[in-house]
Design brief:
With about 475 residues, this protein is an alpha/beta fold. Helices cover about 40% and strands about 20% of the residues. It has 17 helices and 20 strands. Strands 8-7-16-17-18-15-19 form a seven-stranded mixed sheet, sandwiched between helices. Strands 10-2-1-14-20 form a five-stranded parallel sheet. The structure holds flavin-adenine dinucleotide. Flavin-adenine dinucleotide (FAD) binds next to helix 1, strand 15, helix 15 and helix 17.
């Protein structure tokens, strides 16, 4: 795919999209489909944002392709292409291993219900009633109930059941027991619908197909183009500044984080005191750490699960999961089936939730040591499942919240946008500053691959209505 050099972009477009995460890509594509001229500006040299990959030796490492709900099939069919939809396949081998229980699951409602009844000895009627409650949850629900209250209502005192239901969702969107139950319920029921899915061919294939579709639909794409400022005149958006260059557009959609968009791109001066009061209460979500293992060509590793939620911590705690030396991580194992067109390659990615401030405060020397220690802890954990891993790997490296911050510019390297209160700010941004929209991970619910893509469609509809009005 070849991109347009910035100096060849026109001086004026109907819409400028800042950032090419899944939300930005989808929004740009929908707006081009609706007949608007669209310029997509991406800071990195690649498209995809956090939906990214990198190559080392013969390995391709996927950063955020660990699993998404079945809803992606419908969304990609409707808003992207048949080829994209047809590459979505199920991951059937999900494993939990912790001091409270070890089990395998297909991560869908039928299998979870049976495990809750047979393994955790919960009565069928309680399980049915729990699923009925979470299935009915929607965006407009009462926010008073927290996830902790939801679990205590159905499974009082059962910390093992709480862990079984909560741990994967804490990895998937950073949510905790003390947040509105809908942030848990909506995402959990999305997964329970039909299990966990992945993209056959890897992130590189998906983003390549999306880029080609954007170009077919006439979107001008410039990479290595960092937007420095959203230009505001007489209380309305009129374009963006990229270095010395001003490019005009009556509508700008920012896929940069909501806090970045408001504080750094538009600037506080563009908003009323009232609106700023709301924004200043928005908390960003946690960041991540990862350790990437490449298995030497010709070596084979056993089937240990597609996703392995492993922890040696006695109890589940979302706070424990944020510690630098957390004992909880997910191993995603990429067998040769992940990229059937490539020569056989095995990679394993350990993912951990992480707190940006803890990593940001380290000196360079402490930082290097903390990364080495984290790699060692992941080796020790992985040896429990692949005892000869140290003989089989030929690449290992780590990413931290500082890495995510550097590559995406996200405030505190956030992996999932903001906590719930950010969603309202994002939805009302264009009312506070006409012509400026925000798309992408926000409010826990609109995060992850499916959330970001679906939000891209919603925001494209808003921007289209604004442009036509
Ligand atoms: C380690 C990790 C694992 C994850 N695992 C999963 C998973 O298994 N399943 C799942 O569904 N989700 C997962 N996620 C979350 C998912 O990847 C994200 O929610 C989703 O990809 C975010 O999309 P987005 O639209 O918000 O944009 P982002 O991916 O956040 O991209 C924003 C883009 O904007 C660009 N940008 C920012 N500022 C500027 C600027 N000033 N000028 C130009 N460009 C700019 C950035 O460079 C970036 O490309 C994971 C995330 C992480 C970090």
């Amino acid at each position: 795919m070849s991109f347009t050099p910035l100096n060849e972009a026109k001086d004026k477009y109907d819409v400028i999209v800042i950032g090419s995460g899944l939300g930005g890509l989808t929004c740009a594509n929908r707006l081009a489909n609706a007949g608007h001229s669209v310029l997509l500006l991406e800071y990195h040299f690649k498209l995809g944002g956090l939906a990214t990959w990198f190559k080392r030796k013969s390995h391709i490492f996927d950063v955020s392709l660990h699993g998404f709900p079945y809803g992606m099939v419908k969304t990609c069919k409707k808003y992207w292409t048949k080829e994209i939809r047809d590459s979505i396949v199920q991951l059937k081998n999900i494993v939990f291993d912790n001091p409270q229980f070890s089990l395998k699951t297909t991560f869908d409602k039928t299998n979870f219900s049976n495990l809750l009844v047979d393994r955790f000895k919960i009565s069928r009627s309680v399980v049915d009633s729990f699923f009925e409650t979470v299935n009915k949850m929607n965006f407009y629900d009462d926010l008073a109930m927290t996830t902790r209250e939801l679990f205590e209502k159905f499974f009082p005192g059962r910390s093992d059941v709480h862990r079984f239901l909560m741990e994967p969702i804490t990895y998937a969107n950073g949510s905790t027991f003390d947040e509105p139950a809908i942030t848990y319920g909506i995402v959990f029921s999305n997964f329970m619908n039909k299990g966990v899915y992945t993209f056959k061919g890897g992130t590189d294939k998906l983003i390549g197909l999306m880029g080609e579709e954007l170009q077919r639909n006439g979107v001008t794409i410039c990479t290595k183009a960092k937007v420095d400022r959203v230009v505001v005149e007489n209380g309305k958006v009129t374009g963006v500044a990229v270095g010395e260059r001003i490019i005009n557009a009556p509508c700008v959609v920012s896929n940069s984080g909501i806090t970045n968009t408001i504080y750094n791109l538009a600037g506080r001066e563009a908003f009323s005191e009232d609106f700023l009061g709301t924004i200043d209460k928005v908390k960003v979500n946690n960041s991540s750490c990862q350790v990437y293992f490449g298995i030497r060509s010709g070596e084979v590793i056993p089937e240990i699960g597609d996703l392995l939620f492993t922890s040696t911590s006695e109890d589940f705690s979302s706070e424990e999961m944020l510690n630098i030396d957390t004992k909880s991580r997910t191993f995603s194992v990429y067998y040769p089936k992940t990229r059937p067109d490539e020569k056989d390659d095995y990679t394993v990615v350990a993912s951990m939730n992480a707190d940006y401030d803890a990593w940001a405060s380290l000196s360079e020397e402490e930082y290097k040591k903390a990364k080495e220690d984290m790699i060692e802890r992941c080796f020790v954990d992985l040896e429990r499942y692949i005892p000869d891993i140290r003989q089989k790997y030929d690449w290992v490296e780590a990413a931290t919240p500082r890495t995510f911050n550097r590559y995406t510019l996200h405030t505190k390297g956030t992996s999932f946008g903001t906590k719930f209160e950010g969603l309202d700010v994002s939805r009302n941004l264009f009312k506070a500053l006409p012509g400026l929209f925000h798309v992408g991970s926000v409010g826990i619910i609109m995060s992850g691959w499916l959330g970001a893509i679906n939000y891209g469609v919603i925001v494209a509809n808003d921007a289209d209505a604004y442009l036509r009005s």
